[in-house]
């Protein structure tokens, strides 16, 4: 009798232990067993090895094959078939083994130039620089106001003032300009009202005819011309829906507008000017060459004109702060590729020497709250 009871107790404990193990797996994302993603990734790596043995993947340096396999595991790549593996490997080679050795791989290392282009969308022209010259007198007056308050602090971060929200994701739409402008207006609204409200990017993409929607925008003043006339709704009322590059009819509702902008987008450039205006007036819309953002690893992106020309500006981001890390002065910026990377969609880039052209074009606009 006693042995039967003991056996039942042991069986009960065994069942409880098994249940606990399954519960732990559920809570901890099945750490006990390889996930489906892990198994698929392992299968992709195995196919890469097979294709290499068969001669279907060509390469001069065996290290690049190993780097590609490590990239697949790190990024959880799940290519559909052998043809996609071969295609992605070709793009990976074009990205460059020397670049991988220096910067590491990035989320975009196996992407085509067209796919990468979809993650940008800012255009500039001589007219932009003409505006910088034309706005110089207004900017000088703003700087005089800043200097009345004494020196600006050595470091600043608008996130800590609840003026800037998390990074959004433009996805496969060249709408960086809309994310940058909406973010700048988000900051102006928060400073003026004390409320952090996310503003609509799709309204700008679909309704601002001065720009080309997912095809980009020629200058940062163009969307401000639109919001001066029409105003801007919140993201909640007009959510982002252009991530696949789709075109939708403008669904603007004037009754839901939360702000109008002033008539002009004020342009300026230069490290010290940008630093003072950012501190005094709020986050800034800026243009830059996005090439090295792909490889951001938590340390400030350094100036490298050969790899990241300061004159090839094709992307717009939101400048939200500045500081110093390991004796490197940096800008803090919010990108629009989702909350990825070590700083969840934000990145630091060297300040004071126009790294990647980030000190070439900056600006902001005033607002009127509805």
TrEMBL record:
Gene3D superfamilies: Cysteine proteinases. GO terms for biological process: proteolysis. It holds the Pfam family Peptidase_C1. Transmembrane segments: none annotated. InterPro entries: Papain-like_cys_pep_sf, Pept_his_AS, Peptidase_C1A, Peptidase_C1A_C, Peptidase_C1A_papain-like. CDD domains: Peptidase_C1A (cd02248). Residues 152-366 form the Peptidase C1A papain C-terminal domain. GO terms for molecular function: cysteine-type peptidase activity. Belongs to the peptidase C1 family. This is Cathepsin L1-like. It comes from Diaphorina citri. The gene is LOC103521261.
